[in-house]
Amino acid sequence: MFRSREAEDLDKDALPRVKSLGPLKMVFAAAAQYPAQIALAFLALLTTAGATLAIPWRFKVIIDEAFGGTTGPDQIAHAFQYLLMIVLVLGIGTALRFYFVSWIGERVVADIRTSVQRNLLRLAPAFYEENSPKEISSRMTSDTAVIEQVVGTTVSIALRNTLTAIGGTLLLLYLAPTLTIGLLIGIPLVIAPIVFFGRRIRTVSRSSQDRVADVGAMVTEVLSAMKIVQAFGQEGREGQRFSDAVERTFATAKQRILLRAAMTAIVIVLIFGGITMVMWRGAIAVSEGAISGGTIAAFVITGGLVAGSFGSLTEVYGDLLRGAGAASRLSELLNARPSIAPPLRAEKLPEPPRGSLSFRNVTFRYPTRPEAAALKDFTLEVEPGETVAIVGPSGAGKSTIFQLVERFYDPQAGTIRLDGMPLTKVDPADIRARIAFVPQDGVLFSANARDNLRYGRWDASEEEIWQAARAANAESFLRDLPDGLDTYLGEGGTRLSGGQQQRVAIARALLRDAPILLLDEA
User: Fold this and answer.
1) Contacts of 78 (CB under 8 A, 6+ apart)
2) Residue 3: its pLDDT value, please?
3) CATH number of the domain bearing residue 148
4) What pLDDT does 297 receive?
5) Which residue among 44, 304, 424, 444 has its CA within the 20 to 30 Å range from the CA of 221?
6) Contacts of 467 (CB under 8 A, 6+ apart)
7) Residue 214: is its pLDDT beyond 90?
8) From CA 405, how far away is CA 424, in angstroms rounded?
9) How far is the C-alpha of 424 from the C-alpha of 162, rounded, in Å?
10) For the chain, how many structural domains are there in total?
11) CATH code where residue 403 lies
């Protein structure tokens, strides 16, 4: 089950440590919806792999024939023309491979994000009490970015290097079987330090990313509470706290740099040392007439390609596991089921709407606070046309009543009826269509004033919008906005005062013109 990790370090790269690639089935199923693009990408992949291996062979021909002094200028020109054609094919094939593979990666990410968002919109508010919205947002962004990397890069690298490694090994065996056996024995010596250091670098990199995430979270926290920081004179303390976090990040980064530097030095020594040994043995073979100079040149180039391919493949599995972790987290969001769902055989509310509400012996506890009853044996009758004010201290359950009317939650005991119909027998969408709700904090969206006002009724006319604004005492300041109703209100309506935000929220509810109006301390 998907659980909140608010108490943990919510690093965007803190993916679950899965040990199988099973969760990637969801990703590959999404990619399978585009067979034409996959076929074109694979064709381009085959073309580029073949062209890559053809280059060493052409060098063999050029060195043996052109530099050997046994051919004329025309044959030399043809040899280089063939090489240029191969390079041209390689360039075009690489461009096509990059385009189609990247297209598939971006398309899959877009489809997964859309599917996850569509499912999130169906889930009841209880889900967002138990699970951190910040972590959900992280999954929607960072985890899908990991998926894009897997589909758009990792899989392509794996296939390309597999083809290059297999084809290159066969070419090496054809060119010089004896040297090939020695080279294949030496390849593990190069791969071993890459694997050894690679695992440690990944561990340190994850820790480094944790520290970077700490810095980012600290910046966000302080900037959002800047008035409090300055009001209490804590600028110095916050500056020092941030400096300490940055230094911790730098210390972790130094460990990563040291490991990477050591790995680079060892790999360079092994690779070029191996090339030197092969060249040494090859030079002896050339002097003995066993092989040609072109053959040894092609062998060295191909050997480098094969060694590089095997080295890249050692990193691929770790990247695939990381992608599987991201896919697993996204699958939890995609497969989450709403706790408040329409009944299998939903009944219709009576027409025309009356606007009556009834609470009978209702007891309710929030899922995150089951030990305390927000409402206990609560009974209330509201007739059509009545205006009822519910008064009580903070925490008495006033807002809870509205949450239950909207059927964001279901009570553990008792019955709630709308126009005589139990809410549990009606589609929640039908219930909410008869209610206009103004929350305590007057939530606004990052949009212009017009779109915020007509959020509950998009077909409202200009006159109806101004009529609702007038009724909510919002007309005067809305008309004074620089661009009128087309004025952008900022993120969460921050360009308005708190009172103005509440006025807009009230106007939005009035414009909905629903039978029931709920004002939560508005």
Assistant:
1) none
2) 41
3) 1.20.1560.10
4) 86
5) 444
6) none
7) no
8) 11
9) 57
10) 2
11) 3.40.50.300
